[in-house]
Specification:
about 120 residues; Zincin-like; 6 helices; about 50% helix; about 15% strand
């Protein structure tokens, strides 16, 4: 799939999210990359054979203090290759993208992996 088509599907997935989630993403930059590099894998705690679908880079909202100003927007990185491998068609791909985006938004809101798992966002 072309990178342009994949980005369109990411936008489609975001538009399908609840309005509150879309509003929470207004100050978050969503970036698409082909696959994670070694630093991103290490940061996420993911081994070489495990898929990494997305990564949140930033300071979660609950950890921000009064002095949290003049910083670049947080980022959610979406990796195209693992999503393509996991999905059998575009409808499934969009659903996987929604799940990944919700998972990373959860990190932005301060949830850890255990909290995300309880919500079904592994």
């Amino acid at each position: 799939m072309s990178p342009i088509r994949f980005r369109r599907l990411v936008k489609e997935a975001i538009k399908g999210l609840p309005q509150e989630i879309q509003e929470a993403l207004q100050n978050v930059d969503i970036v698409v990359r082909w696959r994670p590099n070694s630093w991103e894998r290490q940061r996420a705690g993911v081994g070489p054979g495990e898929p990494l679908f997305g990564l949140y880079l930033g300071t979660p909202l609950p950890q921000r203090g009064a002095g949290y100003t003049l910083v670049l927007p947080d980022q959610i990185v979406i990796f195209q290759e693992p999503h393509e491998r996991a999905a059998s068609d575009e409808a499934e791909l969009v659903q996987e993208l929604r799940t990944t985006i919700l998972h990373e938004v959860g990190h932005y809101l301060g949830l850890d992996e255990e909290g995300l798992s309880r919500l079904g966002l592994e």
